[in-house]
Amino acid sequence: MTTEALFTLDFTNAAYIVAAILFIVGLKQLGSPATARNGNRLSALAMLVAVVATVVGNDIASWEWILGGVIVGSGIGALSARRVQMTSMPQLVAVFNGFGGAASAVVAAAELIHLMDKSDPIAENVSITIMASVIIGSVTLTGSFIAYGKLQGLVPTRPLLLPIRNVINVGLLITMIASTVWLVADPSITPFLIAAGTALALGILVVIPIGGADMPVVIALLNSYSGIAGAATGFVLGNTILIIAGSLVGASGLILTRIMTKAMNRSLVNVMLGGFGVEDGAGGSGGDDDRPVRSIQADDAATILGYAQSVIFVPGYGLAVAQAQHQVRELADLLKDRGIRVSYAIHPVAGRMPGHMNVLLAEANVPYDELKDLDQINSEFQRTDVAVVIGANDVTNPSARTDKSSPIYGMPILNVDQAQSVIVMKRSMSSGFAGVQNELFFLDKTMMLFGDAKDSVEKITAEVKAL
Amino acid sequence: MFDASALIIALTVFVLAIFIGYEVITKVPPTLHTPLMSGSNAISGIVIVGALLVAGQADGIAGRILGAVAVGLAMINVVGGFMVTDRMLKMFRRSGEGR
Asked: What pLDDT does B52 receive?
């Protein structure tokens, strides 16, 4: 990175300004449902401008290799974008985050090799940013793939806690700093590889203790990292558009991370330390599993729903697991035809990534204005006849409001317990992610409908049709 | 050799861009959280620019291979990210709107 690269007045740098503006306007438009699609296209256009400006403004040799990379990468990207199921979007986002980080790390490696081939000494600011780029990129890579493994069920979703993990993590951090000092003092490939290796290990160790339901935070944070890694690469190459676009992504990921942690009433540090729902899982107000619950069948549920005046559906991760979004929409349509008021209550951390439920229901053709978030819907529950909880647990637990000893105390919840009656669809009486039993299940007004959500909803729909 | 002015310019751009990003995105409704993530994911594919630069300047075989790999990884992000975001956004509709 030289002042020259940043300051040269040429076609490329001028085009980068245009690209930067397009990225910012594109992101702005992505913030409103009416303009979002156009915003995404503007961002794509910005990317095209940046790429063309780069190719035109620089002597690009060895075209065959680049073309090979472009074809293979575009092919994989296009294929996965077309094939992916909406229920698997968290996995796809995780993998893409990982590839972004990997690309930054590889660029750093290639630049180091290039600089070492030249006889000039490498400027300290360049060698430091090369290390930043490879470290952030590598952490993003392995962290994302562990997150993918957890989402896909390849890695156990429960928090895995190594006994001396904090010691190990600190050791890895010290190794990274030491290898950076080494590389700055005496540029060679060895300290670079050490840093890369430690960062890859750190990515695994940082994500593995984090439980499945905390994945929305992890995915958002890794999203941010993939942007910061790109920005770090921009520092290495003295390239403004890389710094700008990378920072924009970094900021957007940070915002989402903050929204997610706020919705869980936890700090980022608390989430990253991991182990939630393990260490004090037996604490809180759970425990007493022998208390009786009221269990009903699909035909009972159909009668209750069919003669209600207002119904709120409360979906959670269980909806995604059962892939029941289309069946739920069908039932909702049927109820609406009977003149019943229907809406959906979406908790910010329902599912495995920010906005997971919204995408699933959009796929099932549910209009987005029927999906209400916490603030919009919570005052509605007391005026609602039936709340139908489908595969959601901790986000409906009234203990979060009252029980100071509960691990989820203080977490904003959906006030499902204020509805006239509650139907909970669930596989079994197992406790939620936080390891606490849900007090909602034991209320007099609550009816449990055990079984696969898709199955249950289908049966209810058939029964409502017969009413 | 430490090019302090280059570092300070880059840092200025970095900090300002973070702030712009924060201000621009801060009020995104929950409905758009996933598209925002996948869309910004596509934007992080901007590292394609860096990949092109290092691939283009590579003299040795190692540099060329690394460059091509970086280009490929970044293109997965760019093409996959923008396409899947568009696919999702196509599904979002208001009540009463046809598809």
From this structure: 94
Nearest by CB to B30, from A92, A103, A373: name it: A373
Told to judge if A394 belongs to the known catalytic residues of this protein, a careful annotator would answer yes
Closest alpha carbon to A312 in A445, A448, A414: A414
In a domain, B49, yes or no: yes
- CB contact at 8 A, A459 and A466: no
* Dihedral over alpha carbons A52, A56, A240, A225 (to 10 degrees): 50
Domain count, chain A: 2
Residues of A in contact with B8 (CB under 8 A): none
Q: Residue A3 has what pLDDT?
A: 61
Is A241 in CB contact (< 8 Å) with chain B? yes
Q: Which of A10, A214, A394, A417 is catalytic?
A: A394
CA distance A286 to A344: 28
User: Given pLDDT bands bounded at 50, 70 and 90, which one contains residue A87?
Assistant: confident
Q: For chain B, say whether A94 makes contact (Cβ under 8 Å).
A: no
What is the predicted pLDDT for the residue at A284? 41
A371-373 and A386-390 beta bridge pairing: unpaired
Of A66, A121, A252, the CB nearest to B67: A66
Count Cβ atoms below 10 Å from residue A158 Cβ, excluding itself.
Answer: 16
Name the residue type at position A24: I
> Is residue A341 domain-shared with residue A204, that is, in the same domain?
no
Residues A427 and A304 occupy one common structural domain: yes
Q: Contact A454/A307 with Cβ under 8 angstroms?
A: no
d(CA B73, CA B71): 6
Domain limits at B51? 30-91
To the nearest 5 percent, what fractions of chain B are helix, strand and coil?
Answer: 80, 0, 20
Pairing of strands A421-426, A310-315: unpaired
For the record, the structure tokens of A286 come out as 């759970």
Convert the pLDDT of each residue in A121-178 to its tens digit.
888 888 999 999 999 999 999 999 999 998 888 888 777 777 787 888 899 999 999 9
Q: Mutual orientation of helices A215-237 and A124-152 as an angle, nearest 10°?
A: 160
Is A223 part of a structural domain of the chain? yes
**A44 assigned to some structural domain:** yes
Which pLDDT band holds residue A422 (cuts at 50, 70, 90)?
very high
Spatial separation of the C-alpha atoms in residues A225 and A101, rounded to whole Å: 8
pLDDT value at A24 more than 90: yes
pTM for the model stands at 0.89
Best probe of the B interface among A144, A248, A365, by most B CBs < 10 A, is A248
pLDDT tens column, A278-334: 544 334 444 456 788 899 999 999 999 999 999 999 999 899 989 999 999 999 999
Where in the sequence is the domain holding A19, given as residue range(s)? 3-273
Inter-axis angle of helices A189-207 and A124-152, nearest 10? 30
Does A370 lie at the interface with B, CB-CB under 8 angstroms?
yes
Distance from CA of B12 to the nearest CA of A (A): 10
